[in-house]
Design goal:
Blueprint lengths: L3 H8 L1 H10 L5 H7 L14 H4 L6 H10 L5 H13 L3 H11 L1
Helix pairs in contact: 1-2
Length: 101
Amino acid sequence: MLGTRRLVERVGPDPARHWLLGSEIIPAQQALETGLATGRLDADEPVPATLAQPPVISGRTAATLRRLSRSDDADADMADLVRSAAEPGLRDRIAAYRQRG
């Protein structure tokens, strides 16, 4: 959840929500045009493994992303982060993330 508001501020709520909930690869040109990216790799450079497969998100995470991309309640960010960290399975989620990278 951390960074969702910044993404919304940078690219706008509709593209941010679409990208976060769609779990799809964002075309380089679109990322450049919206300000999400500032440059791109050469065609012969390998794509980092962390970019090759989008993550699967839970329904609860999707609902929180929708809420965060629509409101401007900065005080709720910390509470959301704490709730996310307190959700059972954090250690397993971190380990899975590290294995993908």
